[in-house]
Design goal:
CATH superfamily of the largest domain: Type I PLP-dependent aspartate aminotransferase-like (Major domain)
Largest sheet: 7 strands, mixed
Shape: globular
Number of domains: 2
Number of helices: 14
Structural class: alpha/beta
Helix content: 25-40%
Bound molecules: pyridoxal-5'-phosphate
Number of strands: 17
Low-confidence stretches: 1-5
Mean pLDDT: 96
């Protein structure tokens, strides 16, 4: 499938056909790719958009006046508008970054360090990815603020009651993942925002696992900042974005100083370009932005609502079929589960699970998933994780379940 030109949404078979990486065998088996939460596969339209830029108009942006540079600048800014529209906002509220990690660091260093005072509190949960935790630890260390954790519910979900109870008059910032990369849980961001804004606290949402799967409108959610990564949503690596409410972006300091982020420079000082350009010092990832816009167009052609239902159904089916396997523990509950299923088989190290599955052509992740505080809360070191996306099928779930039976036989379970 090339870029869909019809108004009818493509079938799931057509969708899977758009991903060339799926046309290979791995260790003698057709590939089943269940590691999209780490990074997604890329459709041909994205690969083509990136190659076209490098082949036909590989120019810098916002600088030269020649034709190729004009085309590159136009494509880069059109990409900003397209990606912004995809999350329900306007181009001027969207900063291109290299991904969620950089986006969170921009808020933690550019906003939080400027606004937090000693004794202020940053409220978060133990389920955060390290990329939405370590930057806050550093900001707290630098400002004298402290981290306050709202403990999870017994099922491992964000607990609104715990969150409510954790607010104090010093709570200045609340940060949570929209969807957990381990438990797969979708958190009730609108409720979090309502609660936080009642306490005049700023809300920063890690959308790395939600934007690829759910229709998201940052405007409807009412968040102050929202971070996500292109490579998990069919786009290239090294590109992502930060949404900031216009007033919040204006009160954020830039992190990268240098070319293209300035208005005027003299020997002693400089003034900054407008938002969002002041946050994009140096030559940006032009090809990445163009590829991400192609990814967005592709996802829209399939339909975000359809994708949300599809990956959720596959994850729920996988969770339901894994749970009864001998010695299996599946983490998180079925309620609000999105595309992720983390699990362990008693007595088998998750790396061994992943290795045996790989020998059968099935790619899953094993490890702590950059969520060591959550692993500690769950009283485990690590887990295996299968994650689903728009190119996966029910046959992939069958292959996973059969593969895990094989793992069990291999380890004498
Ligand atoms: N937050 C969550 C929930 C994630 O799953 C990830 C990546 O796995 C990140 C943040 C970090 O994303 P990136 O490595 O693209 O910056």
């Amino acid at each position: 499938m090339s870029l869909p030109s019809t108004t009818t949404a493509p079938s799931w078979t057509e969708v899977a056909g758009a991903f060339p990486a799926l046309r290979q065998t791995v260790n003698g088996h057709p590939l089943v790719y269940l590691d999209s939460a780490a990074t997604s596969l890329k459709p041909t339209v994205v690969i083509d958009a990136v190659s076209e830029y490098y082949r036909d108009y590989p120019s810098n942006v916002h600088r030269s006046v020649h034709t190729l540079a004009g085309r590159a600048t136009e494509a880069y800014e059109a990409a900003r508008a397209r990606v912004a529209g995809f999350i329900g906002t306007r181009a001027e509220n969207l900063v291109f970054t290299h991904g969620t990690t950089e986006s969170v660091n921009l808020v933690a260093n550019g906003w939080a360090r400027r606004h937090l005072q000693p004794g202020d509190e940053i409220l978060l949960t133990p389920a955060e990815h390290h990329s939405n935790l370590v930057p806050w630890q550093q900001a707290a260390r630098a400002t004298g603020a402290r981290l306050v954790y709202a403990e999870l519910s017994p099922e491992g979900h964000l607990s609104m009651a715990a969150l409510r109870a954790a607010f104090t008059p010093r709570t200045r910032l609340v940060t949570v993942a929209h969807v957990s990369n381990v438990l797969g849980t979708e958190n009730p961001i609108r409720q979090v925002v309502e609660l936080a804004h009642r306490h005049d606290a700023v809300v920063v949402v890690d959308g790395a696992q939600s934007v690829p799967h759910l229709p998201v409108s940052v405007t409807e959610l009412g968040v102050d900042f929202f971070a996500f990564s292109g490579h998990k949503m069919c786009g290239p690596t090294g590109i992502g974005a930060l949404y900031g409410r216009p007033d919040r972006l204006r009160e954020t300091d830039p992190l990268l100083f240098g070319g293209e982020m300035i208005a005027e420079v003299d020997r002693e000082r400089a003034t900054w370009a407008d938002v969002p350009y002041r946050f994009e010092g140096g030559t940006p990832n032009v090809a990445g932005a163009i590829g991400l816009a192609a990814a967005v167009q592709f996802l829209e052609s399939v339909g975000m609502q359809r994708i949300a239902v599809h990956s959720r159904e596959l994850a729920v089916e996988a969770a339901e079929r894994l749970a009864p396997l001998p010695g299996a523990a599946v983490y998180g509950s079925l309620a609000n589960r999105q595309a992720v299923v983390a699990f362990n088989l008693a007595g088998v190290h998750p790396h061994d699970v992943a290795q045996v599955l790989d020998s059968l052509g099935i790619a899953v992740r094993a490890g702590h998933h950059c969520a060591q505080p959550l692993m500690a809360t769950l009283a485990i070191q690590s887990s295996a994780r299968a994650s689903f996306y728009l190119y996966n099928t029910r046959e992939d779930v069958d292959r996973l379940v059969d593969g895990l039976r094989e793992v069990g036989r291999y380890f004498g379970r």
